[in-house]
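Could someone model flavin-adenine dinucleotide with this protein?
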Amino acid sequence: MSDLVRRARAVAKEVAARHADAVDRDARFPREAIAAAREARLLGAMVPRDFGGESAPLAEIAAVAQELAQHCAAAGMVYAMHQIQVACLVDHGQGSAWHRALLARLAEEQLLLASATTEAGIGGDVRSSSCAVERTGDRFALTKNASVISYGADADGILVTARRAADAPPSDQVIAAVLKPDTSLERTNGWDTLGMRGTCSTGFQLKAEGSAEQILPQPYADILARTMLPVTHIVWAAVWLGIASNAVARASAFVRAEARKKPGTTPPGALRLAEAVAMQQEMKATVLAALQRYEAARGDDEKLTSLSFGIAMNTLKTTSSQAVVKIVNHALLVCGLAGYRNDTDYSLGRHLRDAHSAALMVSNDRILGNTANLLLIHRDNTGLLG
Ligand SMILES: Cc1cc2nc3c(=O)[nH]c(=O)nc-3n(C[C@H](O)[C@H](O)[C@H](O)COP(=O)(O)OP(=O)(O)OC[C@H]3O[C@@H](n4cnc5c(N)ncnc54)[C@H](O)[C@@H]3O)c2cc1C
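Reply:
Sure, complex below.
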């Protein structure tokens, strides 16, 4: 295990776990876990060494998200969403002095970044914006009716998608990195949800202004295809694997406790546990395969923008978001009432509620629809190794 993942495990077990139920109950930001992650320098780990970070590969970042999510899914998801923004800056910001300075600050100050893609009236279609960047000389201003910005109130900065200019079509988008001192957030709705309550994904009327340099030079479409889409699906899947892994760990502990009560017998739930472990193993293999595929494609434009890569990443999202629900359900069958109750060491209610967010975080139907379109033109690729 790398030093980074070891630090993450300590934060997860010693801090995130302790506060997870309160974070969920009160739908509050996992401030203790994120403060501990900051202290352990987990937030800026992906920033290249040249800028003061650790140049951590995505596999390690995903492993950190998985560790945190095992003990507090909201903390894991906050970490994952932050890293998606960092990855965009690492891959697409190094050509601009403003973003290079931001990368250095991310490492030095362990800043936390949020994301505002979802917009009122547009929903989860990330490839469409209604708001637009308004440029005046070398300055810009932006107003976005962002229906969901996770931990917006606690973030140090937000990456916001918008149309390139007032006369640009909805799909001609850019990303602007806006920082807290230059941004006003007026709450437009709350976040009293079934699960992922600690992500505090409130709606805001976002108003920001700054230097035009804060707008990433590449079009959003390019950043999305090359970085945001694969990184998002990989780190989200890692969070969901964390939820599933902890559910299986609870089921396993339950079966062992039952076995101790009646030595020499195999508890009836052991069979379901074996099934749950198999599903968890399959899910883990899916995440690892996607990670390998991403690392092999990184820096290779042709591979990153290929139909097969897009289909693979879409499929990672749709399958892992369903797998987590199935695995938690199975763990619940193992633990029975002890899992159904909210006051035992085997409680699984929070896991199940958190797991159900997975299919909605960019609707699976939207993603399946996109995959279906890609499959119309994609030639079958049935080989084991590619
Ligand atoms: C925990 C959590 C955290 C989030 N954090 C953020 C964040 O920080 N920043 C951010 O910008 N967003 C965030 N989101 C929003 C998320 O990324 C999606 O945009 C949002 O969940 C989609 O909301 P929706 O289901 O209302 O909208 P839609 O995607 O519009 O879907 C509405 C319904 O229409 C159906 N539908 C819509 N379009 C299609 C289609 N083309 N094909 C088939 N069916 C379709 C869907 O199945 C769904 O039932 C978060 C969401 C969650 C759950």
